[in-house]
Every structure is written in structure tokens, then in C-alpha cells.
Amino acid sequence: MNWKNRLRCDETAAWPLLQAHARTFRQDASSFDLRTAFAEDDQRFERFSQDAPYVFADLSKNLIDDRAQQLLLQLARECGFEAHREALLTGEPINTAEQRAAWHTLLREPYAPGQETASTSIRAEVAASLADMLNFADAVRADSRITDVVNIGIGGSDLGPRMAAQTLRTAGATSGPRVHFVANGDGHEISELLPSLKAASTLFIVVSKTFGTAETLANAKAARQWFLADGGSDVARHFVGVTCNTSAAGEFGISRVFSIWDWVGGRYSLWSAVGLSLAVAMGSAGFRALLAGAHAMDQHFANAPLETNLPLRLALLDIWQCDFLGLSSRCVAPYHHGLRRLPAYLQQLEMESNGKGVDAHGRRLAFPTAPVVWGEAGSNGQHAFFQLLHQGPGVTPVEFIAVREPAHSLQAQHRTLLANALAQARALMIGQSSDCGHRHFPGNRPSTFLLLERMDPASLGALLALYEHRVFSSGSLWGINSFDQWGVELGKTIATDLAPRLTSGDTAGLDASTAGLLKRLGGS
Ligand SMILES: O=P(O)(O)OC[C@H]1O[C@H](O)[C@H](O)[C@@H](O)[C@@H]1O
């Protein structure tokens, strides 16, 4: 099957079979129960868990059985998933709305000069661009005059590098200058940071694929104004840019520009020069290790049989939960302090990619797509919202992420943390019967457990690539284009219209609520 003619999940023969099968999972006494499933099958853990590069995954505590798993695999095959995956990995224009590839996997593919293929020149270009970016990053690290680096960007130009830098700092894999991130259009964020800096020892990296994002341009202007006021004179040396739009960066006064390709989607761009601040934080060797870890996961995704292909298995579980069990949210609980921004990163990756109500041809979808992703680092979440997960009226699947080896020496404390992650997953599943209502835990609540041996650049690269491919896989089967984001545009257009009205007080044509609020907010 050609990827362009692939089927949508609800057009397959597997779809109605899955619907029928899902009825046996309804929440009543005769339905599927995890406790019974484990009691009746001593191989359940082995069959619903697996290794993938750098990641071990246990899916066995989910509300899924062999028949559901087989039907979901049938659904993937019927949809033409393998052809679509091939198109992703070979740079076909799968972002059909914008007629371009989504070829982030190329950014982490090792390049050996002399390999003659049709795409040799783009591979050579990618390798040269990476070397240029990493040389610059190492030079910044070696320059004792630079003590602080500020990444100015938002969305995909912030979330990935910020989360990865934070994770690897906690893991002890960063050194060199302090790296800060400014994203928010709210001027409080940059205003809080700037007074702690000195113009002469600060490097600003302005990251924007389009170089047209209002928040980033406003923060970059504020930074330049502060830089000049603080006695800085050499804007060209202290401001560099990362963008597709080199001319707009030039107009801003930035001469040192690291360019990226239009086939690198914002939320998939961490691996490109968008990761410059991260490369400054960990050096070229660390950045290359991150790419190598991601590439190992790419290879797994490309070659592992569908039955043991972890990104696909997680995507099938998402589809099963979302479309057949009616579970519309997923809690991510990373039991690693460094991963505390992972839920925010995944919110963009998953919800901006797959939060669509139409398919790639613009046809309305009659089934739900991306679940709401939310979460907080463990064990913090246990003392906040886990109450709802254990005893709330609805069911929310939880995804635990744990790292076996800590980067600190508090071994006993780490064992307690791991015990807590295990305990929460087990408590959700086994529950506890009590005649006293508020002490009753229904149990049979699903969770997935992802386990890393240690947190280092390669493991993080693999984990993030796993999530990217999972999102591609579910999006592919839902029939949607995971690589556009038209849903963010309307609000931007309206904000452009409203901004001058806050000063003029003009409310013509506005609804009464917006007009009333505008009058209260205006004039400052
Ligand atoms: O990198 P930029 O062009 O500044 O875009 C930054 C972000 O803003 C957009 O509105 C999109 O929602 C994001 O996908 C993107 O990552």
C-alpha cells in the first residue's frame, strides 16, 4: 500500500471487532479485571513487557488482553502503517498540508562521507551544520568571558532544549556557563532574569523557526535594549540566531545565524541547531550521545517487528484507551527530578501533533484523538492529585517513568523513591476493599511503567525519540497530519486586533464579554 492511500483506523475491518471486544471491558463485575488477568496468566508480565534501546517498558498493568493486542496490530497493518513509517523515515512529504517532510530522524543519523546515495547532499549538509553548531557550542564553553547563556524562544524553540538541559543538569551531565531559558510573552520572566546578568558576559541565543513569533521577538528586543543599557556594545558577538528565516534574523541585527530546514518541525527540532543552548550546556560529546541514543530508538522503530515495536505498542495502547475504553486523559509521572518538565514537553509533542478533529484530508473525525496529557514529578504528585487517581470516579491511565541508578549518593533515599513508584502502580491495580466507603480503593486502574537504567544523554535521546515515534504512530492510524498546527493561529490573529484596542478603548464589533474585560484591562 502507498502511504498516500492508507486507511484511517475506522475504515478497517479491525475497528468494529475492537468495538465489540471493548464491550467486555466495561466497568462491571463481569468485565476484564487486571487482578484476575495476572492470577490466570503467569506469563502476562513477560508478554506485555519488553526491552527497547535504553528503555524497558511494562505494559502489563493496562486494561488490555491478547485479543485486543492482536486486533490492534491487525488495525495497524490494515491502515498501511508500515508504508507510512517508511515515508517518515525516508523524508517523503508526509506533512501534506504544508507539502514537506518531517525528517527529524535524519538529524540523528550517523553520516559517513563517501556514502553515495540519492540524498547524499542533504546528509552532508546536515552533518556540516551539526559540526558548525557543535564547534560554536564548544567555543562558547571554552570562552571564560561568557558566564551566562540565554535561550530566547517559545514552544518547540524552548520546551525540548529547556527540559533536556534541566534533566541532564540534574543527572550531572552538564557543565560550563549557566544556561537560562526565557519563553513567556509575559515580560515578568525576562525582567526577573536580566538583573542577574552582565551584558559583557552574556550570550543570547534567539531561537525561532519562523523568526516571526511575537513573544520571542518581544523578548529579544527587551534583551537587546537591556544589553545596550548595561553597557554592551557588540550586539553581533552577543546575539546569535537559530532560524529558517535568516533574512528576518539579519534585519533584527543578528549576523551569526544557525539555519534549520523547513522539514524540521518546531516540536521535533531539539536535534537541530535549536538544541544549541543544550549543546552549550553539555558539550559536543554529550550532544552527539543524545543523537546516538535517539538514533538507536529510530533503528528499533524502523526494524523491530510490529509485535515488539515499542513506539507502536504504546500508540496502539493509546488508541485502545482513547477510542475504545473512553479514557481521555493520561497522567505522566516521572520519578526523576530532572524530568519534571517532561509533562510540559509532552503536552506540545502530543497535543499539538495529534489534537485534531479532522483527518489529513480535512474530513471530520467521529472518534477522539489525542488524550489530554498532564502530570508532575513523582513523588510530588502523590501528595497532590494521586487521590483522584486512586479513588476519583473516573479512570486515568498513569505512565510512570523511573531511573534505576541515581546521579547522587543518597542511595537509601533513591530506593525509597523507586519503592514509591512501584507502590503507586501496584496500589492503583490491586486496590483495597473496605466497607467504609472512604477507605475503599476500587483498583483495576491501569498504568504503564517505563524504566531507564540511568539518566544520561543517550538514554534521554532514546526516551524522547520513543515518544516522538509513538505520537507519529497514533497520528498515522488516526489518519491525521501530526505535523501541522493550524489550531494555534486564530488566537494570534485576534490578539493582533485587540492589542491596539487596549490603548484606544475601541470595542466596536466585539462580544460583550470581551468588550467588558477589555475596558477593565485597558489604559495601563
Ligand atoms: O520557532 P517559532 O517559529 O518561533 O515557533 C514557536 C512555536 O509557536 C507556534 O505558534 C507553534 O504553536 C509551535 O509549534 C512553535 O514551536
Automatic annotation (TrEMBL):
Job description of the protein: Catalyzes the reversible isomerization of glucose-6-phosphate to fructose-6-phosphate.
Pathways involved: Carbohydrate degradation; glycolysis; D-glyceraldehyde 3-phosphate and glycerone phosphate from D-glucose: step 2/4; Carbohydrate biosynthesis; gluconeogenesis
Reactions the enzyme catalyzes: alpha-D-glucose 6-phosphate = beta-D-fructose 6-phosphate
Top-level taxon in the UniProt lineage: Bacteria
Family recorded in the similarity comment: Belongs to the GPI family.
Entry-linked PANTHER family: GLUCOSE-6-PHOSPHATE ISOMERASE
Database matches in Gene3D superfamilies: 1.10.1390.10, Glucose-6-phosphate isomerase like protein, domain 1
GO molecular function (one): glucose-6-phosphate isomerase activity
InterPro entries linked to this entry: G6P_Isomerase, G6P_Isomerase_C, Phosphoglucose_isomerase_CS, SIS_dom_sf, SIS_PGI_1, SIS_PGI_2
Pfam families: PGI
Keywords: Cytoplasm, Gluconeogenesis, Glycolysis, Isomerase
EC number: 5.3.1.9
Compartment(s) of residence: Cytoplasm
Stated name of the protein: Glucose-6-phosphate isomerase
Organism of this sequence: Ottowia thiooxydans
PROSITE patterns from the UniProt entry: P_GLUCOSE_ISOMERASE_1, P_GLUCOSE_ISOMERASE_2, P_GLUCOSE_ISOMERASE_3
Active-site residues annotated for this sequence: E352 (proton donor), H383, K492
Gene name per UniProt: pgi
SUPFAM superfamilies: SIS domain (SSF53697)
NCBIfam families given in the database record: PRK00179.1
